[in-house]
Structures are given as structure tokens and as C-alpha cells.
# Entry
Amino acid sequence: MIHEVDEVLKTLLKSGALTDSGIDVAFEAPTRDWAARRNAPVVNTYLYDIREDVSRRHRGQMSVRDEDDIVVKRRQPPRWFRLSYLVTAWTKTPQDEHRLLSAVLATLLPRELLPASELPGSLGALGLSVPLTVAGIQTESRSLAEIWSALGGELKPSLDLVVTAPFPAFPEYDAGPPVTEGATVRVGGMEGDPPLPQGRSHRPHQVAAARAARKATPDGRTKRQ
# Structure
């Protein structure tokens, strides 16, 4: 699932304002060594945090339907995870980096919800839209200063990008065939009662009421109202 989100982000970032710009998109950690090796403008999208969004957790089962809208499988609801990316621009001058970050904002801000039709592989097969937020209020436990300190680099202008993606839950099992006939209860020939006609059905409480009314008369015949 994570590699499919990476693929979606790379496609998004290389489109929109960055179309035909030749700007590369990298996912490596932006350490000092990595920065020293680069020799061309690049947008770095570093995945620094993964945690479950428990507010989206659901219980029960989900039905999987075929092209005829018949339930063929059942599975548990997917679990949702917040994937947090640190987006930075790397060029020779700060002005060019700011232009790149502006282009990234212009590309991602309109895409607050990614439809299932634009998602690849197993991510798209779930048929669920994926929310995306950029430059929002940071809610993760790590601050950006701590992240840069862990990377061994200097603090740099960046965008916090969060993709909340579903992860398929297991197991998945086949569903039984659909019910096509109603249930009936046939009762007859008990305790001297005459058998019911073939194919006729009664509810148990109706049979019990009729038997009680019959026993209430001295000769065992049905009492008339």
C-alpha cells in the first residue's frame, strides 16, 4: 500500500505546475550525504511517520459484490493509516526552491480527495477515495526541528503532506449463495390431530391456540364463538 501511495504522489508532483519541467521527485532521506550528491533540481518527498487513524476504524464485515451486484465474498473493513511526508525543494538558490514549493502547493491544494479511479493496484481495488492534506496543522508527535536533527541537516523550508490511505484487512472468505426461498413450518398429526393438507403451513402459535380451544369443550370438539 505504501509504495502505491508513493507512485500516486510522484505522478501528481510531476504533473500540474511541474509538467514538462524535468524536475525529479525523490523519496530518499534528505541527509547531508544525499544533498551533497545531487546535481540537479529535485523535489524530495520523505516519508517520516506512519500511524493508524483510529477515528476511521470500523467493526463488522464488508460485502464484495460481482458485476451482477451479488455478494460473493466478505471481509473485514480496511484499516486507515496516516502517511506523513516532508516535502522539500532542492536547487542552487533559495528563490528557485521557493518557486518549486509554490508549484507543489499549486499542484496539491486542489486535490483534497483522490478518487479510487486514480489509484493503482490494491489501493484502487478497494474502491475508496483517499484524502490528502498539505501544509496543515501538524498533529504528529515529532516536530520538524526534531526530524531535521535526526537527519543531520539544517532546518529547511518544507511542506507537511499527509495521505490517509486504507490498508486491506484479512482474512477474506467466500460468501454462501443468496437465499431464494422463504422458510416454512409444517405441523400436523400430533396428539390425535388430523394431518394438515399437503403443502399447507401454519405458524406454531396458531396451531397451539387451536389445540387449546379444542380441549376446552367436554366432547373435544371445537367450541363455537
